[in-house]
UniProtKB/TrEMBL annotation:
Family matches, as SMART domains: HELICc (SM00490)
Record-given protein name: Helicase C-terminal domain-containing protein
Domain Helicase C-terminal intervals: 940-1019
Transmembrane segment boundaries: none
Lineage start: Bacteria, Pseudomonadati, Verrucomicrobiota, Verrucomicrobiia, Verrucomicrobiales
């Protein structure tokens, strides 16, 4: 890790040197400090006869000022090179923006840039991609300005003349306020000539000045309108001052500060007047930065910055106040970031800083757990809970001891925290005890689960299901790690073989023996055993939410619950086949990726099933139920997809799997020597289509227990069904969906409904999407409830997972109408430790490295696109300077996150020409002789957005996983840059990625955490996230100025989720669809030939059964009677309206997707937003959603396919 962190430091130094200055002092090709270079005596003329003699002296060297070693800029003025940290002078209004310095332009273009053939091809490809984002506007993508007109324009429009910070000092303390300013000035050198033609060079002079003001002076200046001014010395003719404003005591909210505390603002201001535009750069202060200290060397007088507490405090805010009580803010920035360095106790700041490039390293979270060694009391060791031990029937006692050790350690920790809470102030103490009470409830549930495991006399199936779950999870872990095995032609045998050859999974291997649970995973599984094993357990009503940082292992925790639930159902009744686990996601990228992982688990269970007669003869299966753009709806669609794939290649492949989930053999499109395609792993036999492993050595060579075709899913519902939430809108469109819930064609429940429903990435189920899901959930919950025993109906167990949550109790209640939620692991009394998740520290207690967030706000560049060019090119160039393949790999692929497709489209074209040009420019300066004589070029620029075809998404993820190599195989180049939208928030698990740029502050903190969590997932290779704030975006500026305060409490800044399923827009949009779905899923098929007649039929009776179901859910949503009455009133009104419309409708068929010219049948429903003939409207034909997205009113234009005959009145 040390080498990786050293490289991270070099990379950040290089980027800072490029956009802030002065140029990096690191030679990134060797990792050493730059050599002194060629010293230039700037007091003497530098005359060269011709360019040949000039290049002979300066080619491949770095000119520096003789005596000081400061940089000399060639060809590019500092105002054009650097984008931030510049304090401008005041300029006269109306300066000539059109003035042009021809010499600057000539110097900046000494070398002509030309694209190589490969770069030209890449440029054309990216331009074609960018056409998809026409709204970005081509005129917005302009070349970089290199003339002095750019300098003047910047001074007039974007000039920053001051920077400052506000902080609190104890003005009665001993000592002074000491201010230390650093920066640089650049002087034009006019005595450098080539063939008597003057060149423009700029020589830097360092500024390093310290001033002080007595703290007592601050008390005397309280309330003064004029600030205290202290000038920096030796800057003539520049006038730069520190200006100090002192605010009175009554301006500080809260009562924790002493009476002598004062809130002060210190600004560094350039008061110089510049009357000549050509001298603008001479009057600027570059690389501006200052620090402030107050008090004495032994006692700091800088107090924490006051923060007003909300008057609308609730349990959620009280919890956050407790958990982050030690994360104080000590300064806030003005035109820069306010940062600080703490003293040893963390209660005061040793110094505060006005920082142009703030950086904050978020703590690395460890799931490891230390417990007391029973053989050596008083000594602690990591608790290792191997899956192989828990899976072994002969090691039951050892398994129980391991689980008891974990529970005992948790109990001891809770008791310790109770003791610590006694020392908290009263407000915090009450909140802490509430937290610890929830921890105690979790402990009791874990004990109950363990009791069931050991009580084999009363619960024999529980112990067996637990052991088999551990064995299946171990097999799944081994299978998931297998890389894709590609086919090769064995010419001697004239058949395909797979490399490396097939090897059966070995449970006796070192890898299998060492595979262990993360403690929070097995603890979550253990606490859910009672709810999963006993359908009538009270814990079944609780929604358990796994809250763990991105990449922590949440998936394995709920996969274990899924496997156990599946096994329990079969052990109770081997004939009770059907869907037991329903897992839902919001994005198809995540759905497809998790399908591969879950398929490995089902293969493991199916491998174990024949060995245990009690598990029955029906196979365990898994299905994926998503949109038609991703998987086929029918057998005929699947056949067409296969045929189209053979003709056109991978873009038409819809069978999802690209490798066998058991052995890793490559599946899907495989290009042959004649440029035709074969589709490996798909078997078509008459009207049947199935997936199988193409490697004949694999256990699943005949058939994989995997289903991707909707038609087959309805015929034989899979044991484990993975779906997107949008797919459930289809309940109103297809009666066949009922089979998923165990209902047959006669409307009778013949199989148990799903017993476990899992919702991953819960934070995404919010806003309009969450509101729609909440309404449909009333239908899904009823269909998933088993009423065959009317006295004791069985409801499904709900499990959710997220890395970012806020107000989850409210969100879950609005979505699922469940009043009890358990967040796991429950928080303790500090954000740094919840027992199962802690800040990672070394043996000395120092935090281990985590992701490094770095903020930049380059105001000086001419446009946001110019900023992007400079930043991305420097990031790409920095990786080139590292020495080995291993060192380069984490930094090689630049992942860029965009908040909108418009911004992404604009940047796509930049990677075609502007960025390669700037990359070449930087390499000429950083590596004038190249790195090993070579230069970096951009070979592979990837787009990862929702606009990609479903078949392209897995290939894109595979491309991101390609490691860097000096000589990669043809067509297997590592990705240079990946431009991504919010599709990457979830599901991109690529350990090698370590560098990301974020184009502007994301819309929400949850999105920010999720997106940036895609890099640095390997804890041994912490990543860097460079946030490129928009200079003209007030929200971005606020985040920049509060950079350290924001990132110090990042998870506390997550916004609460909003879900409102019973508001008028949602009811108008979807209530009728829910009614239709309820009727079509419950009535016998024989009663569903037509939607009419309605009045007095079973359809009317069934439709009206919806109302009491919805009313019961509203009763659970709120205790506010006024709000409850409002929801009930809106529901009744909308429901009555829909019933009357159904009664008066003349619908002949249930649904129609598009009008047909050869049919006059009126449907009851048609897709929302699709063309709708006027006669359909006249007959109360409803527009029904076939997706959960959006509830806002829309206006969609429709162009008729043929002109209408207009007749005059």
């Amino acid at each position: 890790m040390e080498q990786h962190l050293e490289n991270r430091t070099k990379l950040l130094a290089s980027i800072a040197g490029e956009i802030f200055g002065p140029g990096s002092r690191f030679d990134t090709s060797s990792g050493d400090l730059l050599s002194p270079g060629t010293e230039i005596d700037i007091t003497k003329p530098q005359a060269f006869v011709d360019w040949e003699s000039y290049n002979e002296k300066f080619q491949g060297i770095r000119p520096i000022v003789k005596g000081t070693g400061e940089e000399i800029l060639q060809n590019e003025s500092p105002l054009l090179r650097y984008g931030m940290g510049i304090l401008f002078p005041k300029t006269e209004d109306g300066m000539n923006d059109e003035a042009d310095d021809a010499a600057d332009v000539a110097d900046a273009n000494v070398s002509t840039f030309e694209l190589s053939d490969d770069e030209l091809k890449q440029k054309q490809t990216l331009e074609k991609k960018a056409e998809k984002y026409a709204e970005a506007g081509g005129s917005e993508i302009a070349g970089e300005e290199t003339s002095s007109s750019a300098e003047t324009r910047l001074a007039n429009l974007k000039s920053q003349r001051s920077m400052g910070i506000s902080f609190v000092v104890d003005a009665a303390a001993e000592g002074d306020l000491v201010l230390h300013a650093t920066g640089g000035r650049y002087k034009r050198l006019s005595q450098v000539t080539v063939a008597d033609r003057p060149l423009r060079w700029w020589a830097r002079t360092a500024i390093n000045d310290v001033v002080s003001v007595s703290l007592k002076t601050l008390l005397q200046a309280e309330g003064q309108i004029e600030p205290i001014k202290v000038a920096l010395k030796e800057l003539a003719p520049i006038e730069v001052n520190f200006e100090i404003f002192v605010r009175g005591r009554d301006k500080i909210p809260g009562d924790q500060h002493p009476a002598s505390a004062r809130l002060i603002t210190v600004s560094l201001v350039n008061r110089t007047h510049c009357l000549d535009e050509k001298l603008l750069g001479d009057f600027c202060l570059f690389q501006s930065r200052f620090t402030a200290k107050a008090g004495t060397d032994t006692a700091s007088a800088i107090l924490y910055y006051p923060e007003a507490r909300s008057s609308n405090s609730n349990e959620e805010t009280e919890s956050l106040d407790l958990l982050y009580r030690n994360e104080k803010t000590f300064s806030t920035g003005h035109g820069c970031a306010g940062t600080w360095e703490l003293n040893g106790l963390g209660d005061r700041a040793l110094s505060v800083c006005a920082e142009p490039i703030p950086a904050y390293e978020v703590p690395s979270i460890t799931p490891s757990l230390q417990c007391e060694n029973p053989q050596d009391p008083g000594q602690f060791e990591d608790l290792i809970i191997p899956l192989s031990v828990l899976a072994d029937n002969s090691r039951k006692d050892e398994s129980v001891q391991l689980l008891e050790r974990m529970i005992t350690a948790y109990e001891r920790w809770v008791q310790e925290k109770y003791v610590e809470s006694d020392g908290l102030v009263s407000d915090f103490k009450c909140t802490a005890q509430r937290h610890l009470k929830r921890c105690a409830e979790v402990i009791q549930r874990m004990k109950d689960g363990l009791s069931m495991l050991v009580d084999e006399e009363n619960h024999p199936d529980v112990s067996l299901a637990f052991r088999l779950t551990n064995k299946a999870m171990l097999l799944q872990a081994l299978a998931s790690k297998i890389k894709t095995r590609n086919p090769e032609l064995d010419k001697a045998a004239n058949r395909l073989t797979y490399k490396p050859p097939y090897e059966a999974l070995n449970l006796e291997s070192d890898e299998a023996i060492e595979r262990a649970w993360r403690p929070f995973q097995i603890a979550f599984f253990l606490m859910n055993i009672t709810a999963l094993a006993d359908p009538h357990a009270k814990e079944r009503e609780i929604v358990d939410l796994i809250w763990f940082p991105t990449g922590g292992g949440k998936t394995e925790a709920y996969l274990a619950c899924a496997a156990f639930s599946i096994l329990q159902r079969r052990l109770r009744n081997p004939e009770d086949t059907g869907t037991e686990v329903l897992m839902r996601y919001t994005l198809r990228l995540l759905t497809a990726q998790q399908f591969q992982r879950a398929s490995s688990l089902i293969c493991a269970l199916e491998t174990l099933r024949p060995k245990y007669e009690r598990l029955g003869t029906a196979p365990f299966t898994i299905g994926i139920w998503v949109g038609s753009s991703t998987t086929p709806n029918t057998i005929q669609d699947a056949k067409k997809s296969i045929n189209d794939t053979k003709k056109n290649g991978p873009d038409d492949y819809k069978m999802v799997l690209l490798k066998c989930p058991w052995c890793g053999a490559a599946m899907g499109p495989n290009q042959k020597a004649n440029y035709q395609y074969e589709v490996d792993g798909v078997k078509i036999a008459g009207q049947q289509i199935s997936l199988h492993c193409p490697d004949h050595a694999c256990s699943f060579r005949s058939k994989l227990p995997v289903e991707v075709v909707d038609e087959n899913i309805y015929k034989s519902p899979p044991t484990y069904l993975i779906a997107t939430v949008d797919k459930f809108a289809g309940l109103a469109w297809r009666e066949e969906c009922r089979s998923i819930f165990g209902i047959d064609d006669g409307g009778e429940r013949v199989k148990s409904p799903p017993g476990l429903i899992i919702q991953d990435e819960l934070h995404l189920i919010t806003g309009p999407l969450g509101s729609m899901v909440g309404l449909y959930e009333s239908l899904i919950d009823e269909l998933s409830t088993d009423y065959r025993d009317t006295e004791n109906p069985i409801k499904p167990k709900l499990v959710a997972a997220t890395a970012t949550t806020r107000a989850s109790d409210r969100q879950i209640r609005d979505l699922y109408a469940r009043t009890q939620t358990t967040v796991f692991p429950p928080p303790g009394i500090d954000a740094s430790d919840s027992f199962f998740a802690k800040y990672a520290v070394d043996d000395a207690g120092k935090r281990l490295p985590g992701r490094m967030y770095v903020g930049v706000l380059p105001k000086n560049y001419s446009s946001a696109l110019t900023t992007s060019v400079r930043l991305y090119a420097s990031l790409l160039a920095a990786a080139w300077g590292l020495s080995t393949e291993k060192e380069r790999d984490p930094w090689w692929t630049l992942l860029v996150f965009f908040n909108s497709l418009r911004e992404l489209g604009g940047s796509l074209t930049l990677f075609g020409a502007d960025i390669p040009e700037r990359l070449r420019n930087i390499q000429n300066r950083w590596y004038p002789k190249g790195v090993d004589g070579k230069r970096r070029y951009l070979n592979e620029v990837l787009e990862l957005t929702g606009r990609l075809a479903s078949s392209e998404v897995p290939r894109a993820l595979d491309a991101l996983d390609r490691p860097y190599a000096f000589k990669p195989p043809k067509g297997k180049y590592p990705v240079d840059a990946c431009l991504a939208s919010n599709i990457i928030e979830v599901g991109v698990d690529v350990d090698r990625l370590a560098i990301m740029a974020v184009a502007g502050q994301p819309k929400t903190t949850a999105q920010y955490i999720q997106a940036t969590g895609r890099v640095g997932r390997n804890t041994k290779k912490p990543g860097v996230i460079l946030v490129n704030y928009g200079a003209n975006k007030p929200r971005d500026l606020s985040h920049y100025e509060h950079f350290q305060a924001y990132h110090g409490k990042l998870y506390a800044s997550v916004e609460p989720s909003s879900v409102t399923p019973y508001t008028i827009p949602v009811l108008d949009r979807a209530l009728h669809a829910v009614m239709v779905a309820w009727v079509r899923q419950n009535l016998p098929m024989d009663d569903l030939s037509k939607p009419k007649p309605f009045l007095g039929t079973a359809k009317e009776t069934m439709a009206k059964k919806c109302l009491p179901i919805l009313k019961r859910r509203i009763e659970s949503l709120t205790s506010d009677q006024k709000e409850k009455d409002r929801m009930l009133h809106d529901l009744n009104q909308c429901f009555d309206k829909r019933i009357k419309e159904w009664e008066s409708s003349n619908s002949i068929i249930w649904h129609e997707y598009f009008p047909k010219h050869d049919s006059s049948d009126i449907p009851l429903i048609h897709p929302y937003g699709a063309p709708c003939p006027s006669e359909w409207h006249d007959e109360n034909c409803w527009a029904a959603p076939n997706s959960m997205r959006g509830v806002d009113a829309e206006c969609r234009p429709h162009i008729p396919s043929r002109p209408q005959n207009n007749q005059s009145d």
